[in-house]
Amino acid sequence: MPRTSVSGRTSPKRKPKRPSEPSELQLAECVWEDAEEIGDVGWNDRDELFKQAEEPCPIMHTVGYLIYEGDDHISMVSTIGTDECSTIEKIPRSFIKTLIYLERPE
Asked: Looking at the predicted structure, is the pLDDT value of residue 82 above 90?
């Protein structure tokens, strides 16, 4: 169940402390508009790319552990252990549509 839902820069400025246990990290869902590059290396069909230029950018959903929340971006990981973690997804605040803080079931 969501605890808080915020959009873009209106998010509270929360900088999580580095937890000793992964279970101490905030779980979140981030809905964001991705930047996109279209085309192959070399020459591309101009008419096709002009058509694709009008298409909206993709909307992405990321769910995971919020490990950093700053003024310009957030950072999330999908998998974390006590000594290792997955790759970091850094999402610029200007891309964020909604950031939902999730509660753990009791």
From this structure: no
